[in-house]
Amino acid sequence: MATVTKQKSDVVLDYLRPGKKFPSVWCPGCGNGIVMGALIRAIDKLGWDRDNIAMVSGIGCSSRLPIYLDVHTLHSTHGRALPFATGIKFAKPGMKVIVVTGDGDALAIGGNHFIHACRRNIDITAILINNNIYGMTGGQGSPTTPAEKISTTTPFGNVEKQFDPCQLAIGAGASYVARTTVYHTPHMEKMLLAALEHKGFSLVEAVSNCHTYFGRLNRQGDAVAMLNLFKENSVMKGKASKMTDEELKGKWVLGTLHEHEATEFCDEYQKLVDAQMSKRG
Amino acid sequence: MTESKTAGAPESKPASKSKYDYTNGPMPLEINLSWCKACNLCIALCPKQVFEPDRDGKPVQVRPDDCTQCTICWVHCPDFAITSNYK
Lengths: 281, 87
Ligand SMILES: Cc1ncc(C[n+]2csc(CCOP(=O)(O)OP(=O)(O)O)c2C)c(N)n1
Ligand code: SF4
Ligand code: SF4
Ligand code: SF4
What we know:
The complex is a heterodimer.
Chain A: H1 11-14, H2 31-46, E1 53-57, E2 72-75, H3 81-91, E3 96-102, H4 103-109, H5 111-120, E4 125-130, H6 165-172, E5 176-181, H7 185-197, E6 202-207, H8 211-217, H9 223-232, E7 234-236, H10 237-240, H11 245-248, E8 252-259, H12 265-280
Parallel strand pairs in A: 1-2, 1-3, 3-4, 4-6, 5-6, 7-8
Antiparallel strand pairs in A: 5-8
Chain B: H1 2-6, E1 29-31, H2 41-45, E2 51-53, E3 59-61, H3 72-76, E4 82-84
Antiparallel strand pairs in B: 1-4, 2-3
The complex binds thiamine diphosphate and iron/sulfur cluster (3 copies).
């Protein structure tokens, strides 16, 4: 069959961790599962050895994703997935290290670690599942909760401005940055594939639905309604470049937003070690 | 389901929209009802309205012949409850 770009539909099942209870703990329709499927299909396309993959997460609904996968996994502490992942990559530079994080995990408690992982350009792929709220703890506002939106900590509307995770990562030095949504699954797979293949720090922001809290509090409806919102309010990068800021207000710009070549942290460190060792003879 | 699949179906269907032979082959998709959480995503996103919800809200393939194997339902199923019998 000439369907090379299409994956077999049961590929995902092959990567589920034996002995885990399914279905997952996530609410019906939660985007975390959609991201998980796309990530598995991307990994499978790369044909990576599963024993050479380490997936690391912190705490949150999104951070539960790695525990379902049959690869090396480390479920760490809130906001600290990137430091743990940095340790793994630094000790075993040959390993493929993937971090799954939430907007709260990565940008609130873990914000400092996030910018420094970007700055170092360490060869880790971070997937930031952005549902604009703290899902696990019951709907508190996060650094990506948009202005005026309702959360349990912003009951009359958020007066803060939100972080744009992609712009933050670009500013901090990440060498591959992309955005996608759980509605755009084939696109998500493409972005994940590119990020995984990229050498250096790569970030994929996966815009996702927490209809249970964000959707309900902001009257955006159920999972289906929220996915349709992502469809209606997303613009591909090429088209966005021809639009005014006014036209782009409230829209998600999707695609590879940034890519540059830069020296990688573990490589540079190894070079330093080699140079010092040869000096000593 | 089986009724709509066979009801009055001619021997060789003249204008089948699908290149897949669901009359002689299995149903387009396999649905794992014990993993399905009835989120409605597959039912709502299918461009061909292949599904109707059962009384629990879980998908039933009521118009299997319309399925084009476009993959939309199973790539969006957050619970990996849908696999294809053809892909
Ligand atoms: C040190 C610490 N502080 C606070 C918490 C409580 N807590 C657990 S998950 C979470 C926020 C999760 O939000 P996010 O990262 O956006 O993930 P989501 O659940 O939305 O996927 C918080 C504050 C914790 N577990 N540990
Ligand atoms: S609370 Fe929100 S993020 Fe958590 S599983 Fe439910 S829908 Fe998903
Ligand atoms: S594969 Fe496509 S056409 Fe077939 S049931 Fe799924 S969404 Fe509908
Ligand atoms: S998308 Fe999956 S979990 Fe949701 S209703 Fe369909 S089969 Fe069930």
